[in-house]
Amino acid sequence: MPERVDVLVIGGGPGGSTVATMLRRKGWHVLLLERERFPREHIGESLLPASLPILEELGVLDAIRAEGFTVKWGATMLWGTEQEPWSWYFRETNPSNPHAFQVWRPRFDQLLLENARAAGVDIREGHTVIEPLFEGSRAVGARYRTDRGAEDLVYARMVVDASGQGAVLGRRLGLRRWDESFQNLAVYGYFEGARRLAEPDQGNIFIESYAHGWFWNIPLSNGVMSTGAVVDHQVGGEGIRVLGLGGYLDEQIRQAPRTAAMLAGARMIGGPVVVKDWSYVSDAITGDGWALVGDAACFIDPLFSSGVHLALTAGILAAAWVTTALRQPELAAAAGRVYQDLYYRQYGHFRAMAQLFYASNRTVDSYFWEARRLLGEDDRRTPRQAFIHAVAGQSPLGYERAVLERGQLPNAFTSEVAEVQAAREARRTRLTSGVLAVERATLRRAPGVRVERRPVLAEGEFVPGHVLITAGYPEGAPCSPLVAAVVLLIDGVTATRAIVARLCAGAGPESHPAIARAVHETLRILYVDGTVEEATPEHTPRPDGPSPDR
Fold this sequence. Notes:
Among the domains are: 3-66 and 102-175 and 279-332, FAD/NAD(P)-binding domain; 184-275, D-Amino Acid Oxidase, Chain A, domain 2 (2-Layer Sandwich), CATH 3.30.9.100; 438-536, Outer Surface Protein A, domain 3 (Alpha-Beta Complex), CATH 3.90.930. It contains 16 helices and 24 strands. The protein has helices at 14-25, 52-58, 61-66, 105-118, 168-172, 233-254, 257-263, 307-327, 332-360, 367-378, 384-392, 400-404, 411-432, 481-489, 496-504, 512-529, and strands spanning 3-10, 30-34, 70-72, 74-78, 86-89, 100-102, 122-125, 127-135, 138-146, 151-161, 176-178, 184-192, 205-210, 213-219, 224-232, 267-275, 280-282, 286-287, 290-292, 442-445, 450-458, 461-469, 477-479, 532-536. The chain starts with a strand and ends in a 14-residue tail after the last strand.
């Protein structure tokens, strides 16, 4: 009889091992099929500080620290308007996680897979999924082959495709849509004996823009440098056809003087390799009995070292969706939309910042950069307000906002960012100077602000909750019951004191001061953010009776 499990995970990279670990913790019988035997080669060595809390949640962070990977304190770049390299450090915006790691991916991925195995996941390496199995439109398992040639079937209540850019299930369903904004390719190799940056930047990723694109240089703990060139896919493809991979990479290195200096006397010990499948998204990442994770779902230009972070994030969210779909099938469709919204919100952040990054670079003038400058100025598919909000008000995941400050952004965009920042600062000044006291104010919601009931992430699955829709978050941001209640009570005529009184009703007197403080702090944050605004002077009577302050 064919084997039957609760969840089949295809692929054992960071996304696959993460989703498998989290699902096993929920008690599901999880089978993970991985075509390679680890350790296996893989590109993408540079991590972000935002990934460290996820690695800690997985229980693997201590093992990663013990491995002795290179500590990455920030980035050093030749990019923007400056003709000399400059450095930026994570501690400037992320004091709780002031560093990340430059990892050797064969070992890093193996640590994550071993962690999943220790959690109780049934992991079978050397098992290649030949095709997913369907009953009608529902995914029900897969046919696979072992590296000894034997074939078999496995049936599952849920199938998770974490098979990387091969996207076993995603390609079968025809979900992939290419992103025309990033028509690039990469050629890379590993070099022994390369020079590193001077202290304190010796662990930084070094990014150098040059005439035909840009280089990454990532120092690894084993004395190896990962170096790759990102170039236009048509120009690069033609160059590779004429010169071959090795000749083309050598030619690009010669044209990037600082990268060439770092590699002077170094010896290539791995590669060269070309990556041609570039930026894309999937039209859907959940469906009847299936979910996509990591590169199987989407891939974005590697400028911000976002690949592993997106895979880890997707693993956490997909595990929550699978658990929800298995336990509460009636919530599956709505929770699937939330999973896709949350995941693509992070993807969209990196995409928007990369688009602006390319548009803002003025260190070089060439076909490559001029084409991308025009694209960055003309593309309007991502809402401008979301761009502005990300730059003006939100914390970066890596070093993306800092780099934008070094570039030359389109004038219209720069002025709109300045307007948003000035408006936020003016509202903050009104609060700190005492001109506006939210405790005594009457506020109204800004245009378009509303609260909706949607599934939200809680304790490893999706549960009914609230999201706040604003101009900066048109897709909605999960909010607490208190925030939802406060926003719903703000109507332009009810004063803050009356809102506090209503929220205190039914609660013991000892809790009233804490409720009042929480409401006031919530209103201050919402006011600075522009979610709520001043409505009428203090003590404005309600239309249907006396002042609510009385």
